[in-house]
């Protein structure tokens, strides 16, 4: 049985987030952070994130912070199943909610608020 569209989107965002975090921490040898972004995010989103990063020196363009979150959770949003909310949890107890959109046809991540 194939996963629901919401579960497929959530799984894709979770796989991206986990792979990106591991690449940032240097705990994986299979990809750099840029390579993880290239295989999971649309070219348009990657370009928009690069612009965002240039204006926010010292902050990671995916985490929107200078460091890596200690933990996170994922929640599917919306009737179409394409939207996923990532709640990042930091070591000091603070949290940050970051929504993502995964294109249903191929599950490429097309949108994130850091791009705006």
List the strand order in the largest sheet. 1-2-3-4
If you compute it from the alpha carbons, what radius of gyration comes out, rounded to the nearest whole angstrom? Answer: 14 Å
How much strand? 15-25%
Major sheet attributes: 4 strands, antiparallel
Rounded mean pLDDT score: 87
Q: With helices defined by DSSP (H or I, 4 residues minimum), what is the helix count?
A: 3
The geometry reads as: globular
Unreliable stretches covering 5 or more consecutive residues: none
The helix/strand class is alpha+beta
Would you report the number of β strands? 4
How is the quaternary structure best described?
single chain
Helix content, binned percent: 25-40%
* Distance between the first and last residues' Cα: 37 Å
Question: How would you explain this protein's 3D organization?
Answer:
With 116 residues, the protein is an alpha+beta fold. Helix content is 36%, strand content 22%. It is built from 3 helices and 4 strands; from the N terminus they run H-H-H-E-E-E-E. It has helices spanning 5-25, 33-40, 43-55; strands spanning 71-77, 83-89, 95-102, 109-111. The protein has a 4-stranded antiparallel sheet, covered by helices on one side. A hairpin with a 6-residue loop joins strand 3 and strand 4. Helix 1 (5-25) runs antiparallel to helix 2. The longest helix has 21 residues, at 5-25.
Q: What keywords describe this structure?
A:
single chain; 116 residues; alpha+beta; 4 strands; 36% helix; globular
Q: In terms of topology, how is this protein built?
A:
Blueprint: H1 5-25, H2 33-40, H3 43-55, E1 71-77, E2 83-89, E3 95-102, E4 109-111
Antiparallel strand pairs: 1-2, 2-3, 3-4
Helix pairs in contact: 1-2
């Amino acid at each position: 049985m194939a996963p629901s569209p919401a579960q497929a989107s959530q799984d894709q965002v979770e796989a991206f987030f986990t792979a990106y975090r591991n690449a940032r921490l240097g705990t994986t040898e299979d990809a750099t952070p840029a390579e993880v972004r290239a295989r999971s995010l649309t070219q348009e989103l990657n370009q928009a994130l690069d612009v965002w990063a240039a204006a926010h020196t010292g902050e990671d363009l995916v985490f929107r912070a200078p460091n890596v979150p200690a933990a996170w959770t994922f929640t599917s949003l919306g009737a179409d199943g394409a939207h996923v909310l990532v709640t990042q949890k930091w070591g000091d107890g603070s949290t940050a909610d970051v929504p993502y959109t995964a294109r249903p046809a191929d599950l490429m991540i097309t949108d994130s608020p850091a791009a705006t």
